[in-house]
Amino acid sequence: MKGKMKAIVKKEPKEGAILEEVDIPQIGAKEILVKVLATSICGSDYHIYSWDEWSQSKVSPPNIMGHEFSGEVVEVGSEVKSIKVGDNVSSETHFVCGHCEQCKTGNGHICKNTIILGIDVNGTFAEYVAIPEKSAWINPKNVDPAYLAVQEPLGNAVHTILSGDAVGKSIAVVGCGPIGALGVAVAKSVSPSKLIVIELNTYRINLAKKLGADVVINPLEEDPVKRVLEETNGMGVDVVAEMSGNPTAIRQTTKYIKPGGRISLLGLPTKEVSLDIANDVIFKGITIQGIVGRRLFETWYKSKGLIESGNLNLEPVITHRFPLEKFEEAFELMKKGNSGKIVLYPDANVIDKWK
C-alpha cells in the first residue's frame, strides 16, 4: 500500500513531538501492514516525549512513537503464512533475532539483538504500522480494541507479578501508574492474602482502591516500611512488584520484604540505586528479579487465560480515550499523574463505536 498517513513523530532531540503526514510504511516479505484501531500510551512513551536521560540514550529522532496497539491487517508480505488480511492483531513489541543463545534457550525476552517497536523502529502512534509476522498475536474479533491494545503492557504486569509463586501470598505493588494499575489488577486476580499498594498521587490512590487494594499507603504521609510491617505482623510481604522506579521506593522494598521473599523490579530508575546488600539481600535470602517485557510467548498465553477466566478486572484501568490529534492533552494528563491507561485512536469514529 502506498500513500500518506498521519503519525506522532519524535522529530527532534528535545521535549515534545509533532503530528505530521508521513509515508505509509512499506512491508517486506515476512511482514504485515496493520491499520491501527487503538494504541495506548506507555510510560516509556512519556520518557521519550519528555526527552529524559533514559530516552536520550535509547532513541534517535526522527521516529514514530508508540508500541501498544491493536488493529486490522490490510496487507501481508509474500512469505507470510499464518496471518491473513482482515485478521485483528496486536504485537509482541520486542522483535528478537531467534538465533542468539538467549533465543535458543527459551529466553528470547532478553535477546541481545532485540529491536523494540516505537524505539528502534517506527511505532504505532500512526494510522498504519508494519510488524514482523512472527511477532503478531491474533486477537478475537468483536472486542473493544482498547482492551486488545493493552495486552502488551498487561504482559509486563503479568510477568512481574507471576514470575514466581504469588497465589494466596501477601503482595505489595509499588507505584500505581498505568502498568502499576494493571499490576494491581493482576495481583487481585490471584487471590492474595493481602494486597498493599504504595502510591502518592491522589488520583492513582483512588484507582488502586477501585481495583481492590486492601491497603493503600501514601509515602508522603506515612512511612511505608513501618506500615507494611504493621500490616504483616512484622514479617513483611511475600512479593513486591516495584513499578515506580523511584530510588527511595526501591531501597525501601528491601526493608519490608519478608525473609525469603521476592522483589520483581519493572520500574526504571533514572539514576543508580544503592542497597544494603549484606543485611537486606544476602542475610534475608531474598530474590531480586529484573523484569524485561514479557516471556515470548508464554506470558501472552497467561494474559489471555486471565482475561478469559473473568477474574481480571481491566475496566477501571482504561481511564481516558482521545483522538490521535489530542496527544498533547494525553501526555499532559500523564505528566500530572491523573490517569490510568490512556488510549489514542487514529480514527476518532472508533471511540464512538465502543463507548
Question: What attributes characterize this protein structure?
Answer:
globular; alpha/beta; 355 residues
Task: Please tell me about this protein's structure.
The chain has 355 residues and is α/β, with parallel strands linked by helices. It has helices at 43-50, 53-58, 101-104, 145-149, 151-161, 178-189, 202-210, 224-231, 247-256, 277-282, 298-309, 327-336, 349-353; strands at 4-10, 18-23, 31-40, 63-64, 68-76, 88-91, 94-95, 115-116, 128-132, 136-138, 170-174, 194-198, 215-217, 237-242, 257-265, 287-290, 318-323, 341-345. Strands 3, 5, 6, 9, 10, 17 and 18 form a 7-stranded mixed β-sheet that branches. It has a 6-stranded parallel β-sheet with strand order 13-12-11-14-15-16, sandwiched between helices. The radius of gyration is 20 Å and the shape is globular.
